Each structure stands twice: as C-alpha cells, then as structure tokens.
Amino acid sequence: MIPIPHHTGHYAALLFGMPIIADRENVVVVGGGAAGTAIARRLSTMINHTKLNLILVSSRSHMVHYPSIIRTLVESTPGTHGYEDQQSINKAFIPLDHVFDEGHGELVVGTVASIVEDGPHGGHIILEDGTLLTWSVLVLAPGCTWEGPFAFPESKNECLNHMREWRLRFKTAKNIAIAGAGAVGIELATELRGRYPVSRSLYPLLVCASNRLFFA
Ligand SMILES: Cc1cc2nc3c(=O)[nH]c(=O)nc-3n(C[C@H](O)[C@H](O)[C@H](O)COP(=O)(O)OP(=O)(O)OC[C@H]3O[C@@H](n4cnc5c(N)ncnc54)[C@H](O)[C@@H]3O)c2cc1C
Fold this sequence. Notes:
Layout: E1 25-30, H1 34-46, E2 52-58, E3 62-64, H2 69-74, H3 86-92, E4 93-95, E5 106-109, E6 112-119, E7 122-127, E8 132-135, E9 137-140, H4 156-172, E10 177-179, H5 183-195, E11 205-207
Parallel strand pairs: 1-2, 1-9, 2-5, 10-11
Antiparallel strand pairs: 3-4, 6-7, 7-8
Bound molecules: flavin-adenine dinucleotide.
C-alpha cells in the first residue's frame, strides 16, 4: 500500500479504481464486509465524484462471505480429488476490487487503529501502519469477531491456510461438540453429518441451553 500524505495537492494512493485526490473531501467507509461493501457500492453510484473521494478501508483485500463459509470449511481437504475446490473458495472469499460502480472509489487495504474527530466537519483516521486519512463523512462497518473455525485472519493466504487447517481437523476428529444450537451451530452440525454420512460414524454433539432449537 502507498502511504497517503496528509494535506498535499498530489494524487496520494492508487490501488483499485479512482485515485484519492488530496484537495477533495473524503467519504470514508471502514469495513469490507457485507455491510461496508453494500454501502460503498451504493455510494459509488450516488456521490459527486468531481467533489468527493469515496474510500473503502478494510483490513482484508477480500470479503469473507460467511453464509457460504460453513460448507467451505467442512468440504474435503485439498488433494482428496487432486485439486482444491476453487468454486467454493471463490464464493467464500470475494475480492474487493470490483466493489465500486464503474471504479468510482478507492480501496485502501489496512486496519484502522484510531479515529479522531477534528471538529464538527470531520476528522481523521490512522491506520496501523501509520497512514493518516482525513474524512468529512465516516461510515463504520467493522462487523464483529468470531471464535474458532470462523475466526479468519486478514490476508487471503492466511485465510486459505486457516480453512485447510479446519478442514483437516473436521476430517480427522473422532468427536465434535458444538456449543450453541442457533443458526450457525445447527448448520455446522448438519453440514458435518451430510459431508461424512457413511464413511465414518461421526455424530456431532450439539450442546444447547434448551431442548428447543434457536433458543435465545
Ligand atoms: C458461520 C456464519 C454463517 C452465517 N450465515 C449467515 C447467513 O446465512 N445469512 C445471514 O444473513 N447472515 C449470516 N451470518 C451473519 C453474517 O455473516 C453477518 O451478519 C455479516 O457478516 C455482518 O456483516 P458486516 O459487514 O457487518 O461484518 P463483517 O462481515 O464481519 O465485515 C467486517 C469487515 O470489517 C473489517 N474490519 C474490522 N475491523 C476493521 C478495522 N479496524 N479496520 C479496517 N477494517 C476492519 C473486517 O476485516 C471485515 O472485512 C453468518 C455468520 C457466520 C459466522
């Protein structure tokens, strides 16, 4: 990533899409998940790009698409069929380079470390690598953190390694206990049962606080 200088009159960064132009005000969206990408895409069709820079800042260069992640994690380990199932991987980890309508926006890959309000009309954010980015409008969509199989790291390679590790763990586990019988727990249990129906007698144990599913 190219560092973005503060208050210069030059093009500051160019990763995907339009350059950030320093004498324009910035509309900054933080978080390249389902929410942040939807907001950034919609804004890219609406705002006046001759007056404003639209910037999406995300710690990942891809979106982790959680609705398809459970099946992806439970799939066979790489090499079983002589290839890695590229189709499910492409669905689970979606690159962010086409978020903006007609390229009308800029993706900055980095993690926001702090947010500062400089007054009633905006402020700045500072990324972990020290990059400073001013904002007139700031949208925060950093999502939430998950545990265990769903605790994905940042880079695409690390995410793929995390996926491979969990595939192997599911494949070689003798017993699996899943705590929580909400949507995620139920789906994980059924995917595991569906993936290994006859080859092993794997009956995932679903542990929940009630005898009712989706109990909250
Ligand atoms: C296993 C599983 C299955 C699910 N299935 C479904 C389903 O079928 N249907 C459904 O509707 N929902 C489902 N969900 C819930 C759904 O995934 C979440 O509601 C959704 O991901 C929330 O989107 P988000 O954009 O708010 O956050 P996220 O998807 O978590 O995205 C947040 C983004 O912000 C980035 N970020 C975080 N902090 C920073 C920072 N400091 N600086 C820069 N970037 C940052 C993260 O890297 C991430 O890219 C599921 C969740 C899980 C775990």
